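Teaching assistant here, posting this on the class forum so everyone can see the example we discussed in section. The complex has two components, and the goal was to see what a joint structure prediction looks like when all of them are supplied at once.
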Amino acid sequence: MIPANKSDTLVSVRDLGVSFRIDRTNRIEAVKRISFDIPANSTVALVGESGSGKSVTALAILGLLPKENSTIDPDGKILYRERNLLELTQAEMRRLRGGDISMIFQEPMSSLNPLFAVGFQLAEVLTEHVGLRGRQARKRAVELLQEVGIPDPEAKYDAYPFQLSGGQQQRVMIAMAIACEPKLLIADEPTTALDVTIQKQILELIANVQKRRRMSVLFITHDLAVVGEIADHVVVMRDGMIREQGPVKQIFEAPRDSYTQALMLCRPQLGRRPKRLPVIDDFLDSSHPPAVADRSRGLRGGEPIVLEARHLGKSFYSRRGLFGQQEFKAVKDVSFKLAKGKTLGLVGESGSGKTTVGLTLVRLHEASSGQVIFGGKDLLAMPAHEAMQYKRRIQIVFQNPYSSLNPRFTVGEILMEPMTIHKLGSERQDRRDMVHALLEKVGLSESAFFKYPHEFSGGQRQRIAIARCLTMKPDVLICDESVSALDVSVQAQVLNLLQDLQDEFGMSYIFISHDLAVVKYMADEIMVMSEGEIVEIADSDEIYLNPRHPYTKTLLSAIPRGWNAARRTAAETGGESHSTVP
Amino acid sequence: MKRAAIGTSIHIESPGLWTLAWKRFRQDRVGLVSLNIVAFFVILMAASWTGLIASDWSKEVGVSNAPPTLLGPRVASTSAERAPPARSRASRIDDRSEERVVDPLADILADIRGERPTGSGGTPIVDPLADVLAEIRAESERASAAETRVSTLIFGGDKWGRDVLAKAIKGTETSLFVGLSAAALAALLGTLFGALAGYFGRWIDDFFNWFYSVFTSIPYLLLILSIAAVLNQKGTITVVLILGLTGWTGIFRLVRAEYMKHRVREYVQAADAIGASHLRRMFVHIFPNVSHVVLVQLSLHVVLFIKSEVVLSFLGFGVGVDTVSWGSMLNEAQTELILGYWWQLAAATTAMALLVTAFGLSTDAFRDALDPKLK
């Protein structure tokens, strides 16, 4: 798949260095003299965690780096068909961007102008760059919409972005990107914001378009499983440097760099469940990952029940007309039991109502119907002041650690506040000691006490959020997409932390996530939600091996399997199917 | 403060968001210069308020409409202009009549004397007021001799020979005080209403919105006049109340919007989850995160209210006659300007333009520095 002939190289990046100015004196080197090639007619994946410089590299190729605070190393070159892109004028670059090189972004909703019909926006690109006008432009736009798989393209031409689903919006973005027959398509995390079933469709679409139009794709992602499905050539980046690059087969079957190995094993896999997930440091310190025994999950049946939800329902109302109301049932008749010291996984796509269930349990949303039995009483029927003491015992860790901590509070204040409110600990000194102990428990140093949240990374912030819950010694911890916003390596650390805490304190978790692999790693029992209803509930191994409900089956089949399952079996016909990376 | 109280053993100073904002602000040269100008005015206000400077602004030290020193004294000055007689505070009705104490009955007396010759045997007509007149004349001469009036003043003098510079400083005190306290009042009301409406929503929001709509549906000047009529007295505090009670609406809208935005943020939900009360969430958690909006609005309104005070005083609804503000200076200046005495106008407008511009620029710099780019 990789062309052996060197002349087939479409873009070659040589010694590219980019630095950003932070303030008057400090600069940060985002990309440190990297070199790689994008062969013609193939897909190159740029893989790395946040801050690795992968997006900056893409922006440098497009000439879209902010002029006021970024500098490109003058020694570097980006050669596109013998021309150095870094030396082109603004006008030349702009012509190239529209025509030969185009880009699709992560958030389709914010990339489309909400005030214009999608067809109009698509036709505008055609008018601007190809010179088609009026009816011709419309005809071509409809063809493009058809090509990217929009159903009923004639009608959807006049639809506004909000009338399309996230997946359809991303299809429109792809249509706009390929409208001018580009030679190179840069896709920056194009599926990260999408549900797993939609992700699968979009990946297939990009692969098809690439083959049909014989163009090159630079695919930027943090997800190695996706890379394995789509890429011909892989470049692994970390801290602005390239750790390893090579054909996809080599990267997946015989990774030489310890960081690449770590990336592959840090992510929970569907097939195995080690007691602890390996973290990056395990690989960087020693060449051999530690061998860890597997953990078995599941309920035996005799566990005491901590919390029980009975026929939980939650409706939202929107006003219709002058007096009318429209009811939207976000959660319909949800019942489950949570066993002590066990983890209940809650899986579903966006809009399935899984977060609403979590928020209703801690009374952040008022339930419309049903009961939550906790400590022998119905939590939902209690008046607010009475619920306070029960509220303490059910805590929630939110998805985004960047927004769930008050930026104006120090970590010390954040952690002391719950104790003050619930009058835990007798004195200030007492509470301070407890906070110090907790900080140590979640793997932060004592000096964190006086720092502000903005001084911490995402993973560290999530640890602070977990510590805040622990101050109240809860019985039940609800993790609402708590690791979804984190990098793979950090995700592993936080998952390990959560597991350690459960082992130590015997807390019960409700683990809400859209990520089946993570849920399967953490949970003893899994509930699958779709459109506000629980479609299936079973032990986690059971659900993975024998999914009963068709929705569960779709969900499972959409998970990117990485290199082995999807590609090697396809390449080696009749070869044995492995679901895990060795 | 809190940190210092807690920190005993391992106190490590860590820059909070305010410290970072201040750091960013200091890199803005224009902002820094403007802030210094504003600080200068505030110091001026404080000094004038405590009576350190310009306490004798109402003393008539120069000749009437004394020109600025740079222009030199007026050349064709009559004796009358050189030494305007002192007047008692109560009789400021007409200047020209007071220029010389003349016996209005003198001519008539002379006529009477001429028509009736002395030889007719009648008693001689004696002026009954002669003694009084002589006394008044002597007194006025004594006064003008004792009070030597300067012919020029640094920034000129007004009609009564009062120093325009001292007036401008005193005017700064009034105008800045009105601006600051009215803006503080408006910001307080706006923030409180906005916080309640935005945080609780539902009928509380409806109520405040209704209140807001009614308030803003009345024409602005009419509203001011009606409040002035209700308060029914002139004075600095009245102006503060008028401006503060009518000026909260814009701040209310902004704060309400901020609260609506923050109410659903995860950190507020997290505060709810740990059991924080509504008040605690509103003012301990959310308020520090919207305070930059309030701060910027506060300084914008200071500028706005300084200008409004000038307009009000110009129209005659502002401060009373015994106080001086930039507005009352401008009011006086309109008659002076026709006669070519421009310095009072120049002093008041320069002072106002300088402060308002500096305040506006430093507000801009504040806004940039406080822009919460939370990393």
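For the discussion questions: Chain B has two domains: 17-56+162-370, 94-150. The CA atoms of residues 251 and 290 of chain B lie 12 Å apart. Think about how each of these relates to the inputs above.
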